[in-house]
Amino acid sequence: MENFEQLFSILNTEAQKETEGTYLEGLLVALEKWLDGDLHVDVHNLSKEEIRKAIQIAILKGMREGTQPNHQMTPDTFGFLLSFFVEQSFEEQLQAGQSLNVTDLAVGTGNLLYALMNAFDGKIEATGVEVDELLIQLAAATANLLEQPVELHHQDALKDLLIDPADAIVCDVPYGYYPNEEVALDYELCAPEGMSYAHHLFIEQSVNYVKEGGYMFFLVPATLFESEQAQQLHKYLKKHVWIQSVIQLPENLFTSRVHEKSILVLQKKSATMRAPKEVLLAKVPNMQNKEALAMFFEKVRMWKENK
To answer: Of 65, 95, 119, which residue sits at a domain end?
Structure first.
């Protein structure tokens, strides 16, 4: 049994002892006991990634048992790919030993953000925003156990935020309609009629809170540019950002066409920078095909050199 599986077994057993609430609430109690020293876990042989993976598996179990539609986790595959694109976009800065300020406006339990922070251990200072109280409590406990520097804000990310502009935004963009129509009125991407798309508003809010020339890395519905509000989104993007990349993800990562997602990489316009010569349009091969995956990464590097 691998280290992270042993840790999951400990957390799973402890979470199930809490019979009053849900499994996720029991898991939060277990994590807090671990932090307080009331649950013994031998961490000497555990890496930050093993700790993150064990907690992730436990959270996934809890989400599958629950019924809350907003309780969803970004799979590790996406974190791995986003880490690559962040590395390519900030290669000079990272090689110079400079840190990045990264914000996730829908941080959830923090899995995507912490996968990125572990990949660039010590080089990222992070901020996360989450409206769900249980999810952000799980994110806070996980951050403490990983000893990763993250500032968490419990609020609706589409309202005014007291955070500094980031070098980069990463976000598994929440999909669907945004219920607070009064708040939506403040956005350029507010729907002319009816309710506005939350995923459109999250993209606009990201543009609001990223520095000029900064990058945004989104996981978006594969049908993002096919909806009835797509023309409005195109117009907004053309005005404020440069589209860097649109990356189609493998179909086998999703249970159905409806759930398929793509990676969208945007750069906020800056007077001191220029748009890429062409947008990178590519499809990630089956992640099990290492040769094809290596060719995909090389294609991205070549595009970067020529952009």
So the answer is: 65
pLDDT > 90: percent of the chain: 77
- Total-model pTM: 0.92
- Vertex 257: Cα angle to 255 and 263 (nearest 5): 95
DSSP state of 197: B
Q: Determine which of 33-37, 44-48, 192-196 has the lowest per-residue pLDDT on average.
A: 44-48
Q: What is the CA radius of gyration of the chain?
A: 20
23 with 82, same domain: the answer is no
253 vs 77: CA distance, rounded Å: 9
CB 82 within 8 A of CB 263: yes
Residue 282 domain-assigned (yes or no): yes
Quote the pLDDT of residue 67: 54
Residue matched to tokens 């005014």 = 160
Report residue 214's pLDDT band, with 50, 70 and 90 as the boundaries: very high
- According to DSSP, the residues that pair with 282 across neighbouring strands are 247
Contacts of 234-238 with CB under 8 Å at 24 or more apart are 236/188, 236/189, 236/200, 236/204, 237/203, 237/266
Residue 146 contacts residue 49 (beta carbons within 8 Å) = no
Q: Kindly report each contact of residues 246-250 with a partner whose C-beta sits within 8 Å and lies 24 or more positions away, as own/partner.
A: 246/279, 246/280, 246/281, 247/81, 247/85, 247/280, 247/282, 247/283, 247/284, 248/222, 248/282, 248/283, 248/284, 249/77, 249/78, 249/81, 249/222, 249/283, 249/284, 250/283, 250/284, 250/285, 250/286, 250/287
Domain that holds residue 40: 3-65
